[in-house]
Amino acid sequence: MKKSACFPGSFDPFTKGHEDIIRKGLDLFDEIVIAVGINSTKNYLFPLENRLKHIQSCFENQPKIRVITYQKLTVDLCKDEGCNYILRGLRDVKDFNYEVPIALMNRSMTDIETVFLIPDTSLFAINATIIREIYKNGGKIDKYVTNFEQLVK
């Protein structure tokens, strides 16, 4: 049976921490679907098309990766895309406390299991919210975001 994982998020922006989780997941899964969620009530800093192109540029030579958008429950997306796992990253206890109840709820609704991976310790401080604030205030973020130029084209 093919092992497919969904890596959901808004990815505003897709950071080196996200990238690290995906690269670790490639050793575990036959396919990873990076699913960029669309929430009409959320104000994104980077346009959807830029985020998609940016993520695709990070994995352009990786046939095990697909990048898509979605606007539904993540577990419904997983069923539609044939994913039997949800892949998530954990940096600290705050992430754990946020992610575990969601994983338990997802498992109670379906048979989809969540797999948690820990990023490299050098990436623990990278947080998309902080990266957005640095960028909005004129700071450089290319140290935290691979192929940054694809994001702002």
Automatic annotation (TrEMBL):
Pathway the protein acts in: Cofactor biosynthesis; coenzyme A biosynthesis; CoA from (R)-pantothenate: step 4/5
Reactions accelerated catalytically: (R)-4'-phosphopantetheine + ATP + H(+) = 3'-dephospho-CoA + diphosphate
Positions that bind substrate: S10, K42, T74, R88
Cofactor field: Mg(2+)
Membrane-spanning ranges: none
Record keyword Magnesium present: yes
Source organism superkingdom: Bacteria
EC number: 2.7.7.3
Compartments it resides in: Cytoplasm
Record InterPro entries: Cyt_trans-like, PPAT, Rossmann-like_a/b/a_fold
Name of the molecule in the record: Phosphopantetheine adenylyltransferase
Organism: Fluviicola taffensis (strain DSM 16823 / NCIMB 13979 / RW262)
Lineage: Bacteria, Pseudomonadati, Bacteroidota, Flavobacteriia, Flavobacteriales
Gene name per UniProt: coaD
